[in-house]
């Protein structure tokens, strides 16, 4: 196995035992980037020089016994919304031409302190306002969408161009591209990972989290990110939790909620079949399945858009007026639409969110996790605008992709997507596991057990 193919956990062990040098690992990943990037276009910028310097520093520190932890010398990508001092944060937009970050974001600083080597900034759908990341090709089929908005991060991890990457999730932007590219994506509880220095889409919905090749890797990265930062008003003190799941697949006593409504409505038959098989596998591992009803399901879309659209427009108010032509057409239309929404609309959306959070917490008192599809369909061909369901309903591709991921953003609960197979076209399918607020350890335990016993993800060909 070549170094770039190693998971974070395996690479960390090889580095710890001196069987692999961080320099060899980073060089292998950068060679992989050079090979696949012309086709995939996952990166807004590749930072080979700084990555190699970080690897040499890690090698020297480890040689003298100063191992910082499991991320020391591990090569990673950062979504290009995340500030690193002295580097551009372009948000994949012409609006940010000439930008340079003055300080590190909290998450970049924490990863740097853990010894991570940043190999580059990964593409996002412009300002994270979309679900396809059109400039990036899917790691399994470049003619299909990468998903968004953290498309570059998902593709880089799936292709071996980063051992892990960070993304952001406002309506599904970690989980959607992770599912479409066959990797693991974790949206933590709202406030658990600080967002200082991360370009906002919608402040009351934004989350930062990891994209990895395994659930164990997600736990390792999450542990380095959590902790209160007063510079983020939403940041909370992290509970003292060991996120790394224990070995083994025994899920005896775990109550898995299976939605009887909403999550399996208008879902591709191949996606539904794969996810239901995965849920059955959880039961075989000892979990008890409990049917649950998703509360206030009819209000999800209105609440998500009622919160996100005006908040995004408020963030972009000055530049939208000063340089409107520098935005892509799709993003500009959404930002202009936000100017038409009233304060009353926004307040009603906030009230609905409050009621939805309360109802979800009551539902989650009856189960430990909820299992459902991450997206209702796999990656579509680039440029396809709509999907027509069996009942004749026509839905935009973006609305379809956000539909099943939005509830976890509205309610702030942790949500993990894991690969559970591929469709007849060979495209990955993801299952979403959602838990109680700050219940990441339980969600990761369930995902890890399935991963060990079920259909684990594989590295995309991306040759």
UniProtKB/TrEMBL annotation:
* EC numbers on record: 6.3.5.6, 6.3.5.7
Domain named Amidase: residues: 24-444
Task: Note the InterPro entries from the entry.
Answer: Amidase, Amidase_CS, Amidase_dom, AS_sf
Q: Does the keyword Ligase apply?
A: yes
Q: What is this protein called?
A: Amidase
Give the matching Pfam families: Amidase (PF01425)
A GO molecular function assigned to this protein is: asparaginyl-tRNA synthase (glutamine-hydrolyzing) activity
Out of the domains of life, which is the source? Bacteria
Q: Which keywords fit this entry according to its UniProt record?
A: Ligase, Transferase
Recorded hits in Gene3D superfamilies, A to Z, give:
Amidase signature (AS) domain (3.90.1300.10)
